[in-house]
Amino acid sequence: MARSETWRTVRWGEVQPLTARESAELDRMSAAAGTPVRDLMECAGWQCARWIAEQYGDPEPFGHGIAIFVGSGNNGGDGLVAARHLLDWGYHVEVVCTSGEAHMGELSSEHLLRARNAGIPVAESLSAAETPESVHGVRILVDAILGTGSILPLRKTVANVCMMLNAVHALRLSIDVPTGTDATTGEMDAHAFRPDATLCLGAPKSGCLGGGIWGSVYVADLPIPKSAWDMLGRKRSVDRGRIVRIVKADDAQVTIW
């Protein structure tokens, strides 16, 4: 459970989830309004790092580590930015590239290089991700493999990684969308990653209500211009840089940082 202060209640009926298409459209509108994906990724990664650190607690000099499994796209880039911040804050963090460095997108490749230059251990091959030794003694596993743009069913290589991670005794966290779960409908691949908690970026995803295994659902505010929200016809679910945990109507409270 995150160590944080209780502020107010945020229930599902008070937020406006986005579909995968709406999320992509919001990114485009944000870029048109002057805040490109590159800037959003930096902020998203920082929010992810805050959230992961709260789940972990204070860093320990000889404590168990945090393993972040990253894909080739923007979801992986978010995870790589988070890894840098966690390292700066004193956490033991390692990264596993599930798609191999050669398949990384432009932004994720840039952040992979920055992570490596910062001294973060990076496993570059899928075979490294498939060995239990790569997560031996890890306290937290972070799924930053696939995001809102993923299509089911999972490729066999990704499904194998998810099956391995689901079998590890550790706290499992997903960034934005659990890998193997449809962001819009909540449909799950048979081998989908099964998180204990998910941090949705910018807004909750409609799939949270449609099914799947999301664990506790949190939402992090991102610096998306108000004009982009207005063009999409949606309101912010959270503001002022906060992270909130969304609860059901019969739950008493929600955590806000």
How would you describe the overall organization of this protein?
The chain is of the alpha/beta class. The protein has one domain (6-255): 3-Layer(aba) Sandwich (Rossmann fold), CATH 3.40.50. It is 33% helix and 16% strand. It is built from 8 helices and 10 strands. The protein has helices at 20-32, 37-56, 74-88, 106-117, 126-129, 156-166, 207-210, 226-232; strands at residues 6-8, 66-70, 93-97, 122-123, 140-144, 171-175, 197-201, 216-220, 243-246, 254-255. Strands 4-3-2-5-6-7-8-9 form an 8-stranded mixed sheet. A two-stranded antiparallel ribbon has the order 1-10. Helix 4 links the parallel strand 3 (93-97) and strand 4. The longest helix is centred in the first third of the chain and has 20 residues, at 37-56. The two termini are 13 Å apart. The model is unreliable at 1-7 and 252-257 (pLDDT under 50).
Please tag this protein with its features.
alpha/beta, Rossmann fold, eight-stranded mixed beta sheet, two-stranded antiparallel sheet, 10 strands, globular, disordered N terminus
